[in-house]
Amino acid sequence: MNQLSNGDAVDESFLVADKQLRANRQGNLYLHLELRDKTGSVGARLWNASEGLARTFDPGDYLRVKGKTQVFQGALQLILSHIEVVDPTKIEPEDYLPQSTQNVARLTARLREILLSISNPHLRALVECFLIDEEFVRKFTTAPAGIKNHHAYHAGLLEHVVTILTIADRIVDLYPELDRDLLLTGIFLHDIGKVSELSYDRAFAYSDEGQLVGHLVMGVEMLRDKVEQSADLTGEPFPNELLLRLKHMIVSHHGTHEFGSPKLPMTLEAIALHYLDNLDAKIHTFSREIRDDPCRESSWTPFQQNLGRRLFKGIAQSNGLPDESMEP
Prior knowledge:
Elements: E1 9-23, E2 29-37, E3 40-46, H1 51-54, E4 62-72, E5 75-86, H2 104-115, H3 121-131, H4 134-140, H5 156-171, H6 180-189, H7 194-197, E6 198-199, E7 205-206, H8 208-212, H9 215-234, H10 240-252, H11 268-292
Parallel strand pairs: 3-5
Antiparallel strand pairs: 1-2, 1-4, 2-3, 4-5, 6-7
Domain HD/PDEase: 153-291
Pfam family, one: tRNA_anti-codon
GO biological process, one term: rRNA 3'-end processing
């Protein structure tokens, strides 16, 4: 997918990540699709579609498509001339969902190494209860961190969390006011609800519970269950204030009300978590948009609606001149 450029003829099979039947200004129906393989995704359109054709497949199905690529408003899209549903038994699913480029076994080992360095006995017992839960670990090391935004690939959640844990472990000595054990635990827990909020066996999507409840509430519920197990492990009740601080880190880590946090960060560890989380997400997003932009001739990416800006890639090598079209 990421090898496609303007004007390429395409005759390939793809996973349908999203499907919408729309009408143009004249009222004619067309299909707007998001097609994906393990290297990335592309928007696609099939003109003069019908409701009957749209009902023959759903997101999560596979299509053999024919068409041609074109750049429209700075973004690469695929104009389709033919689509055909592919028998899923003839498909290798791992060829169609993006994977982390990092070694998952090494990431998992690093996760365990950092978490098992926690010295607080209650927090250490808590993280151990998660780490000995084989089903949780399987999901945590497979789940993406999102559907379309940062780390939207298998093991993306693991990669995101290990990166933040590593950053925190390197800088915590600069901020002696921070509780290292609490910060590391909160980082590990902040997105645990995503293992069930998202579905990621085929197309990446939200589960019913994810749509209705969301990963913040789901994460707090998972924390409460493991706290009960950890109390059995230590033979002591889990400290109430410690639990309260962990819950607060989960529900406040988005940082602002407009980004979904029911509470703003109100502790040192919560505000540290928010900015570390945001730092990794933003750098990952900027890097991806710059790297994957199909317009190699331009010094700038197209206007990014989710970021509210264009991104500077560097002076275009083809002519040595900056791109002059600065309007979104």
